[in-house]
Amino acid sequence: MDAPKVAEEVGNLLFYASKGNAAGVKKLLDQGMPVDATDYDGRTALHLAASEGHTDIVKLLLEYNADVNPIDRNGDTPLANAKEYDHKEICKILEARRGYVKIHGLDEFEISIAELNLDQGKFIGKGAFGEIRVVKWRGTVVAAKTITAELSKDPQIVKEFVDELALLANLSHPNIVQFLGAVTTQRPMVMVTEYLPKGDLHDLMQKRGKLDAETAIRFALDIARGMNYLHEHKPNAIVHRDLKPRNLLQHDAGHLKVADFGLGKLLDPLTADANALYEMTGETGSYRYMAPEVFMHKHYDKSVDVFSFSIIVQEMFEGQNEQKYQLPKSIAIARAKNQERPVFNAQTYPPGMKKLICECWDMNPRKRPTFSVVIQRLEKIQLEGGFLNSDVNEKFEKKVPQRCTMM
Ligand SMILES: Nc1ncnc2c1ncn2[C@@H]1O[C@H](COP(=O)(O)OP(=O)(O)OP(=O)(O)O)[C@@H](O)[C@H]1O
Predict the structure, then answer these.
(1) Calpha distance 310→289 (Å, rounded)
(2) Which positions does UniProt annotate for ATP binding (predicted)?
């Protein structure tokens, strides 16, 4: 169908919904018209049926899996419309489907979606939450992470997302990616952070193989400092839960920043849904860095991040070669059930490094050191190994890494 024809059909759907014409609505939906199609004001058929008090149309649209909480240009949901015009039965139906009236925005951190020009942004990546684009916002190039429609539909997730963002808004540290603002009262929901154009640690290791000791120690310290800031956050520690090379972004000055923290709660790895989401997006990479207790669905605490950290540090010294040949899930099983750990092959570990890594991936979470201790140990290793005052920029090993046995 061409664009004017589609617009006309959407107009018809909305018209029928507003007039209570069930046969007309059904016919268009059966012909394949998306039930959540909107007009220029972001109004859906459900908004109109709810406003006009057409209970049968509301039920029909919900049977066709209409989004219960689409938000129009005024920030209103269908339930808000039904309440405004006092259509009690419709209110009951929508509330039973977890309809909500309005979510509370982020106040001074709330960004209008129009400011982001998402369509003109450059796509740079995709994760379980949604897509990342580079856009210009108020004259600055930033990273905009759109949250999937699926996650945005669940009011509980939306509430947690907004609460979580309100928390992130107050964080600032040289080794964490800076949160700048978010779209929470319009759709799609978007989280805006600083943009780090040099790529992530995963890509760097794919390109360079293993890193030289000096770089690996410096990066390890960057990660540990960023993570310690999050873990020591008051009143509650912020647990990352998905620390992995893809979430470690290179900063211009040859340092790393931790990204994607704080949102782990929304996709709790303990829930079956979260695992399904990881698999759905093909992003099973997280299994490689997952602490055994998370994989085994046991109770866990912030030490899961220390476990992930140890795997990342070992990989920086060894390269990621061997991992290519193993399924991420089978690695997680071997680690959790057989207590297997990656093998040390490289000759570049400075004294004390392997011991620290082994402590960090201890099967017993309580035996793992805190990041505060990790920092002290790394600083000592850095100082005693003479790595402190050398040039921080671009000293990577050029040699092809030797093949190592993973488990
Ligand atoms: N602020 C940023 N600046 C530059 N690149 C970024 C930024 N945030 C993310 N990216 C890039 O986009 C990719 C996708 O990021 P995203 O956080 O959506 O997915 P992920 O971390 O790979 O997966 P998941 O969200 O499922 O854990 C990242 O691997 C990274 O390379």
Answers:
(1) 9
(2) 145
- Rounded-to-integer distance, Cα 389 and Cα 167, Å: 36
Ligand 1 centre from 143 Cα, in Å? 9
* CA 128 to ligand 1: nearest atom: 26
What's the average pLDDT block by block, 10 residues per block, for the chain (407 residues)?
74 95 96 92 95 97 93 86 95 90 77 93 87 95 90 77 83 96 89 95 93 97 98 88 94 91 58 39 63 90 96 95 74 91 96 98 97 98 84 43 41
Residues 222 and 256 sit within 8 Å (Cβ to Cβ): yes
ipTM value > 0.90: yes
In a domain, 352, yes or no: yes
Asked if 113 and 258 sit in the same domain, the reply is: no
Q: Residue 139 sits in which domain range?
A: 107-194
* Active site (annotated) includes residue 305: no
Stretch (H or E) spanning 83: helix 78-84
Q: Which residues line ligand 1 (CB under 6 A)?
A: 124-125, 127-129, 132, 143, 145, 177, 193, 195-196, 199-200, 242, 246-247, 249, 259-260, 283
